[in-house]
Design a protein that fits this description.
Elements: H1 4-26, H2 30-43, H3 48-60, H4 64-77, H5 82-94, H6 98-111, H7 116-138, H8 163-182, H9 188-202, H10 227-238, H11 245-260, E1 265-268, E2 275-279, H12 286-296, E3 305-307, H13 318-331, E4 336-338, H14 346-352, H15 354-361, H16 364-374, E5 380-383, E6 387-390, H17 402-406, H18 419-425, E7 427-428, E8 434-436, E9 443-445, H19 447-456, E10 461-464, E11 473-476, E12 481-484, E13 498-504, E14 511-515, H20 531-534
Helix pairs in contact: 1-2, 2-3, 3-4, 3-5, 4-5, 5-6, 6-7, 8-9, 10-13, 11-13, 11-16, 15-16
């Protein structure tokens, strides 16, 4: 039985570890902070503070499932500990679970009724929930949705709005407003304001203006995207100049046609003596993307790239990134391969900035158009029947064949379970077997899972992205799995390097190149993200 003196010593040591963890957190060494908080919890698992602090560190690493778990432990230990509810609410918000977040912020307000910060965050969360209810009320069943892409002719200069469609839309808006007010979901003023916005969204008006004579930016001559055009567009982007909508439509629509024709798993053949480059998450860091091309050359038939998902969100130059990648795809399809990440989805784009950025720089029509095109992106690639490349990871069951992945119907928003969810969201773990996802979506899979998948499909290596790594990459699972992440100093705060992997046929031995972040204009990450999320940065 421990003495009072030994209990005091244990408690003191736990506090020392907490202080060390706090210092690591301040230094943005979040993984180290989590390890130190964990040691403190092992000594004293009844401290709500330790659990809540570790929850915050998990949130910084986007490990929202683990953050929710730890914050829940904190409030179970001390039901009046407001920070526990606060941390859990913030994690729910980051996952887009607004209704769950609202309950936690309401509890924070009850515990701290005079806290202006708690009141502000509760108000923003209430706005998010009201907006969600509104979107649910006006949503159209997937089977009945009209494709924006099929309604756009980038060569046209005439809109497609008729008098009858105007009247139909106006009538629908009036009925919707009455229903919302009757249900008391929103105030009269809020309904009228949102109704006007909804009407503008529902009406399919495509602002396909002629290119004005005074437009001095990059131009596409005819239907062919050339290297000369791409270089000019990149120079314009570097100077924070916008591409004309007419050319943006052309790039996105031509890319859509190419992506739609591809299977969900794409086989890539690299001839002997040739090289192939795989890059990980870029997350809207346009100037770091340009640095990749400085280091590795522009994409071409002789210098092909695969960008492995998460092109957009968080970084505030996501539109420039996606248009550049799509333009290279149009210029030479075999020079640019693109794989879907978990951030190529409506739910993530609404929260983390891409939707707001596109709406600000282009139009609402492009918001819908990108959402459609992202559903066309392949889910995985195999290089020379040896290297399996996927954004997230492997599966909750053994025996998955490449043919099963190729057969996935990917033309939809990512589901919350199943093979498609897992290829986008899962992460490796050092332990054998499978475990719950620290993100709250997908799963964690061990080295034995990786080994069996490779053996079952006669493959040599798994390459995936999806996670920040201090050096830009990490080799795991007995050398059979490599994580590559290509957004250095992620969100201007993580201090990590970026990396890319060069493979040369026939051996396909991975040659990893790391690089540091470069300067960018004074536009902060998350500049276009939802207000409630920016409050937690």
């Amino acid at each position: 039985m421990p003495t009072m003196e030994s209990e005091s010593s244990i408690s003191s040591r736990a506090e020392e570890l907490k202080c060390l963890a706090n210092e690591a957190f301040k230094a943005k060494k979040y993984s180290q902070a989590i390890d130190l908080y964990s040691q403190a919890i092992e000594l004293n698992n009844q401290s709500a503070v330790y659990w809540a602090n570790r929850s915050f560190a998990h949130t910084k690493l986007e490990e929202y499932g683990s953050a929710i778990h730890d914050a829940t432990q904190a409030v179970e230990i001390d039901p009046k500990y407001s920070k526990g509810y606060y941390r859990r609410g913030a994690a729910y918000l980051a996952m887009g679970k607004f209704k769950e977040a609202l309950k936690d912020f309401q509890q924070v307000k009850r515990i701290c009724p005079n806290d202006p910060d708690a009141a502000k965050k509760l108000k923003e969360c209430e706005k998010a929930v009201k907006k969600l209810k509104f979107e649910e009320a006006i949503s159209v069943p997937v089977a009945e949705r009209r494709s924006v892409a099929d309604s756009v002719d980038y060569r046209s200069i005439v809109g497609r709005m008729t008098t009858s469609s105007m009247l139909a839309t106006a009538a629908a808006a009036v009925v919707l407003a009455a229903a919302l007010m009757a249900a008391k979901l929103l105030s009269v003023g809020a309904v009228l304001a949102i109704m006007a916005l909804a009407a503008s969204i529902m009406v399919i008006i495509f602002p396909l203006e002629q290119v004005e004579p005074q437009y001095s930016g990059a131009r596409i001559e005819g239907d062919t995207v050339t290297l000369e055009f791409v270089k000019q567009m990149i120079e314009d982007f570097k100077n924070q100049q916008c591409l004309h909508k007419r050319y943006a439509f052309q790039i996105v629509l031509q890319t859509r046609e190419m992506l739609r024709a591809l299977p969900s798993l794409v086989d890539i053949t690299v001839p002997d003596g040739k090289r192939f480059t795989v890059c990980g998450d870029v997350h809207g860091q346009f100037y770091d993307l340009l640095n990749i091309f400085e280091l590795n050359g522009f994409p071409s038939e002789e210098n092909p790239f695969l960008f492995n998902g998460d092109f957009v969100d968080r970084g505030s130059f996501s539109l420039e990134v996606i248009l550049t990648l799509f333009a290279f795809k149009c210029m030479c399809p075999s020079a640019m391969y693109l794989s879907r990440g978990n951030h190529e989805s409506r739910s993530m784009n609404k929260i983390y900035g891409f939707e707001g950025e596109v709406r600000s720089k282009l139009s609402e029509t492009f918001v819908e158009l990108f959402a459609e095109v992202f559903c066309c992106l392949p889910l995985a690639h195999v290089i020379n029947q040896k290297v399996f490349v996927v954004h997230g990871g492997l599966f909750s069951v053994d025996g998955v064949q490449l043919s099963d992945i190729k057969a996935i119907n990917r033309f939809c928003e990512p589901p919350e379970e199943g093979l498609m969810c897992e290829v986008l969201w899962s992460d490796p773990q050092p332990n054998l077997g499978r475990g719950p996802s620290k993100r709250g979506v997908g799963l964690a899979f061990g080295p034995d899972v990786t080994k069996r998948f490779l053996q079952d499909n006669n493959l040599d290596l798994v390459v995936r992205s999806h996670e920040v790594k201090d050096e830009g990459y990490e080799i795991e699972h007995d050398g059979k799995l490599i994580t590559v992440f290509s957004a250095p100093n992620y969100c201007d705060q993580m201090g990590n390097k970026g990396a890319l992997i060069r493979f040369e046929a026939p051996e396909l031995k991975p040659n990893i190149v790391t690089f540091s972040a470069v300067a960018h204009p004074d536009v902060m990450p998350m500049a276009y993200a939802n207000n409630f999320l920016r409050m937690f940065q």
